[in-house]
Specification:
With about 80 residues, this protein is mostly helical. The chain folds into two domains: about 40 residues; about 30 residues, no CATH class. It has three helices and two strands; from the N terminus they run ααββα. A two-stranded antiparallel ribbon has the order 1-2. The radius of gyration is 23 Å and the shape is elongated. The relative contact order is 0.08.
Length: about 80
């Protein structure tokens, strides 16, 4: 369900007032958010290519090769 423009404006105003009244909570929230985000980025899933042995960040969770070239070469030599 989509909010009307009037409802969106009311929400925006409420949130702005809340942030003005609670700057410490907003700062704490943002600090926690970026700590969590930094951990996620640091622990990004790294795989090792079965053919060349290079580390790579997979586009899929089940990726085994860093490139099509390595995949084809691996299968030719298998």
């Amino acid at each position: 369900m989509e909010l009307t423009e009037q409802a969106k404006e009311a929400r925006r105003l409420y949130q702005a007032k809340w942030r003005a009244k609670n700057p410490h909570k907003q700062a704490e929230y943002m600090a926690n958010y970026w700590e969590k985000k930094a951990k996620e980025m640091a622990t990004a899933e790294q795989h090792i290519c079965l053919y060349c042995g290079n580390h790579f960040e997979p586009k899929r969770s089940d990726a085994k090769f860093c490139s099509d070239r390595c995949r084809v070469a691996y299968n030719r030599n298998a």
